[in-house]
Amino acid sequence: MTDPKKQQGSWVSGVNRWLSKDRSLGFRVLDLFCGAGGLSLGFWAKGFDVLGVDKSLDAARTYSQNLGPAKCDDLNNQTDFPFVDVVIAGPPCQPWSRAGKRLGEEDHRDGLDVIIRSVETIRPTAVVVENVPELGRSTGRQYLDRFKDSLHVLGYAVAEFELNANDYGVPQNRKRLFVTAVLGNEPLNKPDPWTKKIKVRQAIPSTYWRNSKQARMVSEGMSAYIERYEQASGCRTPRDLHIDRPSRTLTTRNLSGSTGDMLRIRLPDGTRRTLTVREAARLQSFPDWFRFYGSERSKFEQIGNAVPPLLARAVAESVSDRLIGARSDGERNSPPRPIPSSAVASATMRANRRRDTKPEIVLRSALHRKGWRFRVDFPVVTATRKVRPDVVFPRRKVAVFVDGCFWHSCPTHGQRPKANAPYWDTKLKLNKNRDLADTQALLTGGWEVVRVWEHEPTDHAVARVEIALASRPS
Ligand SMILES: C[S@@+](CC[C@H](N)C(=O)[O-])C[C@H]1O[C@@H](n2cnc3c(N)ncnc32)[C@H](O)[C@@H]1O
User: Fold this and answer.
1) Which residue, by CA, sits nearest to atom 13 of ligand 1?
2) What is the count of structural domains for the chain?
3) Same domain, 40 and 150
4) pLDDT digits over 34-50, tens only?
5) Within this chain, do residues 312 and 387 fall inside the same structural domain, yes or no?
6) What is the pLDDT of residues 270-316, one digit of tens each?
7) pLDDT tens, 156-197?
8) Which of these, 99, 135, 301, 469, could form a disulfide with 140 (CB 3.0-4.6 Å)?
9) Residue 331 pLDDT
10) Is 56 near ligand 1, meaning CB less than 6 Å away?
């Protein structure tokens, strides 16, 4: 396929070619908060098979009509994730964005927690998260660092970079923060920028500029308001779209809202018109074959929210280079791709209960019979991570884990399966690292931690828990 960086011919026909799929690499991608699929489209065009989840019905429809299966669901309720090679996500940016109230992690729309949950469950080879640069500044910084630490503890090499879409063939200045994580020690490289900067003219030729039947004219009153607004805000160059520059950042607000900040075209006679859906899509580098579903407002929302597909393609290229490299050179840099040895093993893993295992139930019943009251499935939020012990005594700050011999590598009964040994080595090592990190985080937070082995006699385990409880009067 043509390298977009060596662009020949018109940009519009190039976009239609660069963002088409000509082969499948056999790697699966799960896109959390997938929206219309701007981020997915870049991965899809690089040969990944994509599936998405989003709570918006219109966005899920756009995604599934253009790219692949999309589930319409609220991710806050999601605990079951499909087994994939790569997790990608562009969670809502309102918690951090300048336009929002910047409530950060207290905002119910914050999605980093769901991403960590999915990574813990799936253990994909690579993770890519996109958000506004504000996440890496002031209020967001500490939270972002905790997010990166959580990925690190799970065995990933984590990198963070800010990319401007205009450096990757998109006719728009749009700075976004990317956090990438790949299993192993070597972080993902920042994608190479294009040498050529694309301007609005290449996406919206001057013939379109004058007359587009689908566009709405900006009323005289609104036009006068825009001019007053710009004067009052000391704006030197009018914020109309300029044909020989990259566009300002497209947002849902400036595409669909009738505000002083709206994106609009100033016609030669001085009147103004809004952008059409297709023009907005082009400024985001969506190919013309990509169709959006829903009302006009909903389409603008999906477009304004999206990662520009050409930018996503550049990031996807770094991921595919790494995955293909790992597959072909014997995993020199990164641990093996975690694929269970067979469909049966995969089904067994999925069926394997994370909670309410028999040893847990036996221990809980024994403690209950002795009059102890406790919490189950109770998240303990520490300074560095959220931990979910199997049994929690919140007032006494005692956390109990019942560790299965296989999954937690018990020194007596832990075994390494012979089939697909490199996969199991990685998987079990990651479990061990997570156990250590959980214990460490709880101890640092002033908790008493009891780790009970699955094979431990119940009375012995109860006695150990009671010793811990006795040291912590309520
Ligand atoms: C910034 S947009 C994602 C854009 C997408 N990455 C793209 O490139 O097109 C965030 C998306 O998150 C979705 N969303 C917000 N909260 C959600 C939740 N709790 N569960 C599922 N989707 C959610 C919104 O509907 C929106 O489509």
Assistant:
1) 33
2) 3
3) yes
4) 999 999 999 999 999 99
5) no
6) 888 889 999 999 999 999 999 999 999 999 999 999 999 999 999 99
7) 899 999 999 999 999 999 999 999 999 878 899 999 999 899
8) 135
9) 41
10) yes
From the list 192, 201, 212, 207, the residue with the least C-alpha distance to 171 is: 201
- Tokens representing 218 are 């900006």
Pocket test for ligand 1, best of 30, 53, 54 (most atoms within 8 A of CB): 54
Cα–Cα–Cα angle for 428, 317, 29, rounded to 5 degrees: 50
Q: Is the CB of 51 under 6 A from ligand 1?
A: no
18 lies in some domain = yes
Whether 319 contacts 188, CB under 8 Å:
yes
> What mean pLDDT, rounded, does the chain reach?
85
* Strand segments (E) across 77-142: 86-89, 126-131
Residues 6+ apart with CB under 8 A from 345: 419, 420
How many Å apart are CA 84 and CA 81, to the nearest integer? 9
Number of other residues whose CB lies within 10 A of the CB of residue 333: 14
What is the pTM assigned to this prediction? 0.71
pLDDT tens by residue, 443-474:
888 898 888 888 878 888 888 788 878 878 77
- How far does residue 341's CA lie from ligand 1's centre (Å)? 33
pLDDT of 105 higher than 80: no
Atom 16 of ligand 1, residue of closest alpha carbon: 109
Ligand 1 atom showing the smallest separation from residue 59 Cα: 27
Find the length of the chain. Answer: 474
Residue 6 lies in a domain: no
Output the domain CATH number for residue 413.
3.40.960.10
**355 and 455 inside one domain:** yes
